[in-house]
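Hi, here's the filled form for the chain we discussed.

Project: internal
Contact: R.S.
Residues: 97
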Amino acid sequence: MTDTPHLTDQQREALDRMRGHLDAALVCLDEIRDPVERELVARVMTDDLLPAAEGRAKAVRTKVVQQLRTERGLKLREVADLIGLSIPRVDQLAKGK
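And the returned structure, exactly as it came back:
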């Protein structure tokens, strides 16, 4: 899990809401009585839904780095310092990796 002591109250609230939604999805999964159906839904969740969500989150990170570079004219080092990542990682994000 990512270390998050530097988050604002608004950011913590957003993450808490997201955790709540994920917990609710897992509760729905647990409520499926038939084990075969439960496995199928779990498979779709892990194979389709979660990777799609991860891809969207990564796209957000890439867009933010690109915005900081283009709109604010920040150098890789400045972006890295601002968001708390290494310069090579910021470079990867800027390239969509």
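Let me know if anything looks off before we file it.
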